[in-house]
## 1
Amino acid sequence: MFITFEGIEGCGKSTQAGLLIKFLRERGKEAVLTREPGGSRLGLDLRRILLSMENQDLSEEAELFLYLADRAQHVHSLIIPSLMAGKVVISDRFTDSTIAYQGYGRGIDTGFLDQLNNMAVKGILPDLTILLDLPAEIGLKRAQSRNTQKNLTVSEGRFESESLEFHQKIRQGYLDWAARNKYRFLIVDATGNIDTIFRSITGRMEDFLAKSFEKKH
Ligand code: TMP
């Protein structure tokens, strides 16, 4: 069972992914929480490179291939072995981030990105993708205040420093892509508070969770 969380900056996916893993573990599921970029040893180095303000001159192509390298290693070293061991894997970002950011955001053809993604993931696709949706203005404000609190502005600020228009394109891109892949997307309103959003996720995942528990027993 492979679940991914997606959304723009400040949508709260890391918090919600953390709550979902706790929820599943309390119900006896063996579950692994991971993220992109940075879900493997190599990925940790790539994350630093990709998000650092020092690399504002990174070309769009170099950016794309670094995300794909991170994903290929992540799938190979962590996702496939965990799924093979029967664990639930939850990833904070996956293939759809490349479609939204490098595709709708940077303007690279999404059909071409889909092919590159397919090569990087060796056929592994999420069973369920939870898209936390909210207006870009709200997300960016949340992300900026989080970064200031954690002093992350310099080390992880490269995308937050992009224009509001860029983030609006990404939000729209996610919604468009979700409409084209309805079978695996769950779109959740992420403007409310943490508990309301989490209840909305688990409430709407009921069928999916029931199936997952049936498989085990
Ligand atoms: P986050 O994990 O803190 O959300 O930051 C990851 C950043 O990297 C975020 O701004 C989105 C961006 N990103 C891409 O542009 N393409 C990708 O394929 C992935 C996984 C992330």
Note: The domain at 2-212 is CATH 3.40.50.300 (Rossmann fold).
## 2
Amino acid sequence: MSELIRYAVEDGVAVVTIENPPVNALSPGVPEGIQAAIERAEADPAACAVVVIGGGRTFIAGADIREFGKIVAGEKPRLSLYGFLERIEDCRKPVVMAIHGTALGGGLEVAMAGHYRVAAAGAQVGQPEVKLGIIPGAAGTQRLPRLCGVARAARMCALGEPVGAAEALEAGILDALIEGDLRAGAIAFAREAAGRPARKVRERQEKLAPADLQGLRAQVEKRMRGQRAPLAAIEAVEAAAKLIFAEGCAFEAKLFNECLFSSQSKALIHIFFGERIVGKVPGIDKDTPVANIAACAIVGAGTMGAGIATAYLNAGIPVALQEASPEALEAGAGRIRRNFESAVEKGRLTPDEAARRLSMLKPTLEWEGFGTADILVEAVYENLELKKQTFARLDTLAKPGAILATNTSTLDIDAIAGATGRPEQVIGHHFFSPAHVMRLLEIVRGRSTAAPVIATSMELAKRLKKVGVLVGNCRGFVGNRMFHEYMTQAVFLVEEGAAPEFVDAALEDWGMAMGPLAVGDLAGIDVGWRIRQEFKHLEQPGVRYPRAGDRLAELGRYGQKTGKGWYLYDADRRRQPDPEVAGIIEEAAREQGVARRNPGREEVLERTLLALVNEGARILEEGIALRAVDIDIIYVNGYGFPAWRGGPMKWAELEGLPGICERIRTLGWEPAPLLVERAGGAGRFDA
Ligand code: CAA
């Protein structure tokens, strides 16, 4: 037997254990090893049945995703597991698949080739391939509808969400749940099954009635706008009801390969690995001490402070929340209460659980709890002097070893750290609004930030259910520094004559979750305006700056919170164009002598997206981002950049870096030196 597969006979049953940690992916050698073990069991007079089970923490988590890149690059032949699965199904002794952890993708496909499936109560099964821009590629779209019906299978394959064991049992995907020891339970199940005739899933017909999938298609077109794989998955499942099994598999294979070789799949696989790579920081390893964060104290109970407090409470960490006035404190506590109420209304939390979490909040006017907290978080207004004063205060309150985190989105971490006597304990924790919802946490290291403070922050991000990305200190860090260039182009475009709704629609149709001007309204136009005031002294004569947003802010049009900004908002915060805005923009353009014309959709996309890429390349060159993939993860998780386009840097690579340089020059800009270098070299940013 190969090292990846163990074979043993227990109680007259052959037990085939897959040992390919950490997740038992179907790497080269695993399918071959399973097949050899099944053939050995078939010939083994000591075995009346077979159990296939995963060693370690899970059953098979799918095909080995690392292999896909090699296939697409032509270094490896195309994947085909069809014959291997039919060989399992054709085994003359019953094969029982024993599932714990996750049977995902190719894992569920292997499980469905068995004659029976049993599972531990906590197991999950699913076909999540669409999240990688592909569809099931080993008969998943053909066997799953034979077990659970066309409608449910189409849903599972198109949306990619796994289902729990109880639901899978009810749906017919599983045959039994095993309480207690899975291995022993599966062996007992297999012994009983040995006496009965086993059915092959591929021969089942009873659940194959066609279903109306229009509703699902509409849902996919809305929720997964622009993506090919979910619609291909529906087509493949539909084929199961129309074609014989072998033809259905051939149809699935054709769609699978189309998807695998697409840019969308390259982009989504890049994001899958990227989310895991960003956790790896050079110089920080498992030996770096990580502090236990058992209590948090937050100063500032505005939108950000309240959102951050909610995120901590959700992670089970008690929070002391400080404000200067009783009114502000009560308003902040009210925001947090509403966050929990809304979670209860949406069915995400029980009322009891919401009450339990809320009971861990201690509002204070007197800094109670700040001396015992393991982390003190500052979430006051974006003003350097105020932040420095706040940190000087926190320094007097915090116990030795406590982390002092600032939620600044643009300001100099070193200047803030300099207001304390312990700059090594100071770090940026830049949350994105709403802080309890958005997945991104930009972790900003200052000049003196100590390694354990970074390591603790990275661990804490996971506890807060965030993707933590470590970045360096500069104005706006990674996300907002790039966003500034992107937004500048959006405002220039409206000053030149494109309507705000035209600019936003161009980018939303392209795949951005929200256009830049609508984002401005959501975040508050006053925030950018205040920041621009802060940095006004750095403006240079003869350089064009975006002004239309400042005019809106001066008129009190702060965005959603005042009911009007770039748009007009109704009570449900739905936006609509505001004719008044056109006049304000025209006026701003006239003041600056900007000629009015009619920029088209292509120009909107070129200027905004290339501004992002060019600034991203500069950030990379300066070492502010560790890798290009870190920038992509920031943009996908914090700025609504479509994952299926890979993030700005991967998108540029997929477009081709030489062409990107040319397009930047066509706009009359200078491409970043790193961009030019990579365009002339490997054609990609990361090694
Ligand atoms: N292939 C290769 N590597 C994989 C992998 C896979 N299918 N699944 C996980 N890994 C790797 C991760 O990259 C990670 O590696 P590092 O430690 O080097 O960073 C390691 O395994 C552990 O993964 P996680 O950190 O994600 O562990 P987790 O416990 O948080 O989550 C999981 C486990 C739920 C299985 C999650 O890893 C996951 O969702 N994996 C992908 C599952 C999937 O999409 N399967 C379908 C594959 S496509 C397919 O199967 C096509 C087909 O039809 C034949």
Note: Residues 22-23, 25, 61-66, 81, 102, 104-106, 109, 128-129, 132, 136-138, 140, 276 surround acetoacetyl-coenzyme A (CB under 6 Å).
## 3
Amino acid sequence: MTASVPVVEPDITKLLDHLSRQPALADRLGGTRDLWSAREIGDGNVNHVFVVRGPAGAVCVKHAPPYVRAAGPSWFLTPRRILFEHRALVEHRRHAGPHVPEPLHVDPEEHLLTVEYLAGHSVLRGGLAAGASYPHFAEQAAHYLAHTLFFTSDLALPAGRKRELTSLFETNTAMCQIMEDMVFTEIFLPHRRNRWTSPELDEDVRRLQRDTDLKLAVCRLKQRYLTSRDALLHGDLHTGSIMISDHSLSVIDQEFACYGPMGFDVGTLLAHLLIAYFAAGARGPDQAAQQDWLLSAVEEVWDGFRTRFTELWRDQADGDGYPAALFTGAATAALEAERQRYMGALFTDSLGFCGAEIIRRIVGFARPADFTTITDSAKRAAAERRALTLARALTTTPTDYHSVTDLTAAARDSY
Ligand code: SR1
Ligand code: MG
């Protein structure tokens, strides 16, 4: 690929000019423009993120350059992704308000999105790498997942509204294609973007790329991602997309939002908790308590999600899916059994996506800091190999796991 667009250096002056033109944002910062300061804080693959502080407060401003930040101008990426992120923020905040930051302004020309500044929060991935655990994480993450997925699905929405909402995200094509390529395809080919811990994992990767059962299972999942319109997904729900404090959790970076299979969001989050678990194991035996906490978080996220989602379905199912009028009297028990079946199928889907996400984070372009910061390559490779083995089993034989404790037991048995 050749360079087709210039590097867009983050221009602090333009950023402050932009904020000063928006009275509500200027008020939030307080004082005059010369008293404001901006600092880049983002470390994500895709965009630039700044915190801007003034005498009265702070805001967070995201800039989408016309390329992938981590790759530079040679990899064009539509800056219109910022509009999909804004739409998803608005929609998800309607349903999971405490766990989604307030969008304050979007500028479709400059590709700038301003959201509330999350004081006292840090990126979950960084906290986990530093050995932290968070007492309310699982309950808050489960609430976020249940509310965003349920209330954007056919269980909660009349069909007309659901179709309207689906259509608003159908053209987030470029971002979805990144996932279609990176999660489900490239890692099985000798693609220029692939990287892994080499030479330690060379043979593992060769085996994986010849593994027809695995490739079929991943293609089945890709087909689900391409065709399902279950709910409005975050679309990239890893631990770097979660801001956390001791009391609060907020989900950011919705630029990959699209309608898709619910298991994609659930599975991605479980994958990154397991990645943190295996990475902690490589950092040493003193991480055992955090590893225990991570596995209990896996269990509590799934159990909390399943419980809350099912409650919402019992109490607030105003959508066109499963019309209540069809299940009165003795038939209510059949509907309840159907809810349990639905959640079982969603669990199986989630495990498949969980495995696929773990694999692509070990073999693909976007390797997570959990692993890459392990400087001893032998230890890193050993942790990644354990994760790969579990991930392959999750993806190819997800129905072998009947409950979430089967999953956490398998993670423990990796040692
Ligand atoms: C080009 S972006 C690479 C990856 O980073 C994001 O976090 C997404 O997961 C994407 O796949
Ligand atoms: Mg991101």
Note: The CA atoms of residues 66 and 79 lie 5 Å apart.
## 4
Amino acid sequence: METIDWSNLSFGYMPTDYNVRCTYKNGAWGELEVCTSDSINLHMAATCLHYGQEGFEGLKAFRGRDGRIRIFRLEENAARLQSTSRGILMAELPTEKFREAILTVVKKNERFVPPYESGASLYIRPLLIGTSAQVGVKPAAEYLFVVFVTPVGPYFKEGFKPTPMCILRQYDRAAPLGTGIYKVGGNYAASLVAGEKAHEMGYSAVLYLDAKEKKYIDECGPANFFGIRDNCYITPQSTSILPSITNKSLMEIARSMGMTVEQRRIPEEELATFEEAGACGTAAVISPIERIDDLDENRTYIFSKDGRPGAVCERLYNKLRAIQYGDEPDPFGWVTVVE
Ligand code: PLP
Ligand code: COI
């Protein structure tokens, strides 16, 4: 058996033992199958390949100090995949089937759930694709749902350390009434050029403005944005961002810590008033933002001068991680313990 350096994992793909699959045919979902092959046999005219009928999810399993495995908010991911399916006309997978698939794939790959001390986790990637052949632009009649898992470390290689982000007005990730609120591959394809450009210039991500007016904050590459000011957690309301489950959780945690929460449009200039800012998501957890450079307007907003996360980001991060790893009670009922 290979040895894994649990404490130095990146956010990458490592093969594991099993994946699970389920197919939709003749108007109904079949039984769950457990597979060892990591390939998919696909028709060359499948709608996922030509017309982007593809949606995915991302969630994590954590091994606690007690050795038990906890999965974070899986019903929320099931609901979001259903919303994505409605958004691009794919068959909806029932929550119960989603849950069974996630629990099965995690249990089958238990040896890949990183040990508590490593601070790493098992990333769970559900994928739903249209598989039947179409040449006309129409939804498929058949679908494949697959879930694989892979052990991961931090998404931004710096981990819980502030990194710089940039505003680039030449690129949009999603249109105001487009697919930004769904988790579909096309949104990520649309973000690749800007993302690479930002990385080449030393930024960890692009902070997107709304596509229509280029006035309001949307989100940060693969994560939502939040700012902190006067004990208030402020995060964008927008029709073109993904409704982040991490963000939703942080809003509840912030309220439980006595903070106020505002979810509303955030004009770019307001960045100058935030004491702290961060990106949040399953992969990103909380990634504090060191500064945001508006490269078109030659402006910089600074949130960390000493290279350390702000105190509020740190409190929110610690509380979220404590619930996820089972170090503290789960007052919100977010965690599914794998039995
Ligand atoms: N925004 C985008 C574009 C994402 O890809 C993700 C990752 O899933 C998020 C936000 C964060 O969402 P969540 O917290 O549900 O992982
Ligand atoms: C996640 O946070 O789960 C994501 O999907 C972000 C990225 C890896 C696409």
Note: The mean pLDDT is 97.
